[in-house]
Structures are given as C-alpha cells and as structure tokens.
C-alpha cells in the first residue's frame, strides 16, 4: 500500500475498507481473523462473507477503542476536570464514542446473523434426523410390550381362578347390547 493512500487518514475509525495503519500489526490482524474463523468455521460463501465482515468490524472496533482511549488519556492529562476541555475536544471524544458504538453494533449484528445461521442449520439437521428415525420406525414393526386392558382383565381373571376364586359370569363389557 502506498503512503499516498493514507494521506487523508487521521485515525482510520471511519474506514470503509480495512487497511493496516502505521503502527498496527499484520500478525495481530491475522490473529483476529483466525479467532473468528475458528469460532464459526464458515463453509458457505455467505458465511465466509459474514465472518470477513465480522473480522473487519472487530478490527475497526479495536482500532477505535485504542483511538478513543488515547484521546481520553491525552485530555485527562491536560485536565482532570472534563469541564476544562474545549468544546471541540468534547465533540471529538463524543465522535470517537459514536464510532466505537457503531463498530460494536456491527460486530453484534454479524455475530447474531452467524449464530442464527448456525441455529437454523442445526435445526435442519435435527429435523432431518427425526424424519430418518421416524421412517426407520415405520419400516420395522413395533413389538407391543404392554398388554391391552382386555388382555390384562383376562390375565387377572385367570389368576383369580388359579387361586381358587370362581368369578360369577359377568356381563360382556365389550358388547353392552348383549345381556
């Protein structure tokens, strides 16, 4: 990157593209990139684009935070009372705070989109697994483990007979019309 590309750059907090400014480390930038790519492991192009946007927003957030803290430190070194700062200095500090908030919101938006995508993909996988499981269950006949209530009633009657009780002839409860 030529030096002339940075002619109008004062702090880089409003940058539309992410270029390393003098004093910024390419190794640190690659580390931020690695951290977010390891966290989301993008596979599709749209996921890669979101992670790239997240990396850029995070880098700009870190840059803006450094610039904000640098300006705040200089202002407090000048005077511990913020009322002694000039109106221009207070506006500049407020501007950096807005930049910081905007980048933090972009980071949050990207993370929310990636997390929602991850949740939807997981829901699709789970739904697919449920369908496969249901199909497998429908293909294999189910073994009935519990007797029906009628079978249970017959078992109880047989146990009573085996114990020496002779139950009276009971009406057929299954067919109430027969008497």
> How helical, in percent, are the residues?
55-70%
If helices are DSSP runs of H or I spanning 4 or more residues, what is the number of helices? 4
State the distance separating the first and last CA atoms.
101 Å
Please state the structural category.
Answer: mainly alpha
Residue stretches low in confidence (pLDDT < 50, at least 5 long) are 1-9
Strand content: under 5%
What's the structural domain tally? 1
Please write the string of helix (H) and strand (E) elements.
Answer: HHHH
Query: Overall 3D geometry?
Result: elongated
C-alpha Rg, in Å?
Answer: 36 Å
Number of DSSP strand runs:
0
Largest sheet: none
The average pLDDT value, as a whole number, equals: 82
Concise summary:
This protein has helices at residues 26-40, 45-78, 87-139, 149-162. The chain is mainly alpha-helical and 179 residues long.
Give a structural overview.
With 179 residues, this protein is mainly alpha-helical. The protein has one domain. It is 65% helix and 0% strand. The protein contains 4 helices and no strands. The protein has helices at residues 26-40, 45-78, 87-139, 149-162. Helix 1 packs across helix 2. The longest helix is centred in the middle third of the chain and has 53 residues, at 87-139. The protein is elongated, with a radius of gyration of 36 Å. Mean pLDDT is 82; it is low at 1-9.
